[in-house]
Design brief:
111 residues; alpha+beta; Alpha-Beta Plaits; 4-stranded antiparallel β-sheet; 17% strand; globular; disordered N terminus
């Protein structure tokens, strides 16, 4: 699960602050996101982070844009967040399940 997706996700220091970033579009999960009526953009993936990894996501700064996901903060927390997101980025079926579960619970993606 780590191959191609991990290549899209980068954990780097930007101005001395650890940051987890990836470009949106062209990810394996994109067809499932579109099929569910959402845009596979940074705002959508921010929602995934908040729903699927809320305890970790609440401890980092999410600064996403249309074409990019970006989280900044403690490196250990970003490594945990990367681990939470990798499975969804790589697996359309898991992403579709997460969307259905989130929406059934009343969660709204802001994409």
């Amino acid at each position: 699960m780590l191959g191609r997706v991990t290549d899209h996700m980068t954990l780097i220091d930007i101005n001395g602050l650890p940051s987890l970033i990836f470009e949106c579009g062209g990810l394996p999960a994109d067809p499932a996101v579109v099929a569910a009526g959402h845009e596979p953009n940074g705002y959508f993936w921010e929602g995934v982070a908040q729903y699927a990894a809320g305890s970790v996501a609440s401890q980092v700064d999410l600064d996403c844009e249309a074409g990019m996901f970006c989280a900044r903060g403690d490196r250990e927390l970003l490594v945990q967040l990367r681990g939470e997101l990798e499975g969804y980025l790589a697996d359309p079926e898991s992403t579709a399940r997460l969307i259905r579960e989130a929406e059934a619970s009343g969660f709204e993606f802001d994409d």
